[in-house]
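Subgroup meeting minutes
Present: P.N., E.W., G.H.
Scribe: E.W.

1. P.N. recapped why we're keeping a running log of single-chain structure predictions: easier to compare across weeks, and new members can see raw inputs and outputs side by side.
2. G.H. added today's entry (289 aa).
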Amino acid sequence: TLPDVGLFSDGTAVKLVGEETFRIASQLVDEFITVDTDAVCAAIKDVFVDTRSIVEPSGALAVAAIKQYVATHKTRGETYAAILCGANMNFDRLRFVAERAEVGEEREALFAVTIPEERGSFRRFCEVIGELPGGARNVTEFNYRIHDGSRAHVFVGLTTHGKGESGRIATYLIKHGFETLDLTHDELAKEHIRHMVGGHSPLAQDERLLRFIFPERPGALMKFLSLMRPGWNISLFHYRNQGADYGRILVGLQVPDKENKAFAKFLDTLGYPFVEETSNPVYRLFLKS
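Output recorded in log:
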């Protein structure tokens, strides 16, 4: 008897297997495979991509197990069958599935990266990401809030080309001078910390807060950084790829009042739609120093 069960895969969420089910399974089943939630989310996505059908988590368990079996035993040229059952799915659960499927397939890697809190270091970090071995990576998530005068801790998500790549990416970033912690398999980071980067900062003086719409294309962020004046500092940055053709980005910029005219020219030259939120009461309550 299990002490507790989760409800994500509610069709299999039982503390004790039924007596008759256990009797039949013990006689006929050769092996059991355990899979985690991220693997089930990835299997739901795989089924949808192949069949345009959405199965519930319990129905996707068999596909997740087959994928794990093939990966473990490195089998080739064999045929496997999975029984897909149930469509107990809603949009709340689908949102969770979409978020976790990329990590389950390791198509997305998550990192905590420490960069020097100095002018130009953000741009240099973006350049290093663009030079990663194996081809270009898309930034799927980027969260940062100024809090230390010498070091900045950034939560970063990157697309990958295959499983097991997150460790190699972390090594590459470390080699280029950026202290990096691989968070791809860290439940605390995936469930909570990614949503909690922010807060008040006494270092965020002369801060202006703006919501931008960036085009989802290579070079959009570098254009933004290149047009910024060297004396301006990014004090907050929040971005999460939502699969659209544009990205919604929240940016805090430290711009002295005497440079307001130059800042207006920068926004006009940049050409990205924006809304200034410096006077927003939510900003004043939760972010403004």
